[in-house]
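Thread title: Can someone regenerate the structure for this chain?

I was given the following input by a collaborator and told the matching structure tokens would be attached. They weren't. Posting the sequence so someone can regenerate them.
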Amino acid sequence: MVQIHKNFTDEAVRDLMKKYTYGGIKAVHVQDILGIRRRRFFKLLKEYRNNPDNFSIQYHRKPVKKIDVEIENNILKELKIEKEMIENKNIPIRFYNYSYLKDQLSKQYKQNVSLPTIIDRAKKNDFYIPRKDKKNAHTHEVLTNYAGELIQHDSSHHLFAPYSNKKWYLITSLDDFSRYLLYAILLERETSWAHIIALQSVFMRFGIPLKYYVDCHSIFRFVRGRDSVWQEHRKITDDVVPQWRQVLNDCNVDVTFALSPQAKGKIERPYQWLQDRLVRTCVRENIKDIEPAEEILRQEFDRYNNHQVHSTTGEIPAIRLKKAIKDGKSLFREFSIKPPYETIKDIFCIREERTVGSYRRISFNNIEIPIVGASINDKVEMRMVPNEKTGITEVRLWHGNNLIGNTKLKNSDLNTVHF
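Best answer:
Regenerated them for you:
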């Protein structure tokens, strides 16, 4: 745009407008003299006619809007808290999270501050750590065309509450297409049963997906050499089907494995976002126990799914998932129990096979269970559902396609810790 205020005085332009008004000069000649286009000319003409005596072409820069002193002080206060965490070697935080600070200002002080403003104050007050660009950094991208086409499932063992001095496990399941977190939970120990409960939660609420994407953790995959014991040294990778995988087989769900950390890095890990926010909030609120940490997780879970615009999709995950289902862009199938099984306890369970002995009994962890409905040397499958709250495991006994028994045993007697 031609800056006519640098080449002409107010009086000169005012005189040209006056001559045009009285027919002394044509518009095209005024445009040529000022070096402007027709649209700009008529805009100036309108301004002249509205106020001929005070007409001016001088540019007036708008004053920079200053933020309230209280807001300024709160920004610096929150940045100082972040800096103290970063400088504390016992807290696993190494960078500032300005988006988190923006949310804190809104939550704690009811003050809405733009992200650029916070970053500007951080740079001006020594609260800024530039991040080095990672070589060969993985690009986060949506790999699917439908909701339910691929579920990213993972766990992270991390010091989420530094003041507790205990590491906990964060188990998450995420729909790749919508980036909606289908499941998230904090646990003190990781077991196959915990991951089976995650499957049950997803399948019962959203339906059965097409495929899962996981790493090669022993809970998900048997790997020769790593997981073999001496009596199984001849078994090759995938000869043994882990408990978690058996549930997926019953539901006709496929699994894809990340064969290296680099391959896993190509898939977005939602716990990284949750992990950072969990740690920061647990430090600020002096959290030491897992119960209040779980409440923080639930709050962040809701924020991520229902309020946060995802950086990859540009949409809020809950809205994107709902839209996909409405438009028929979903591969989730309705969960149903296939015969001969009778209840979800027959699907989401721990399975063990035993041979009926000469006294028509099977043995598991030195517990003798009488069998009716199967002959000596027959194979009986135990489908077990442990309940950590009651300390009781329900054991459903199957012989072929027939349920031949149902008993309850104490978790401690079954030594279900290995589940």
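The chain has four domains: 4-50, 69-124, 151-326, 344-418.
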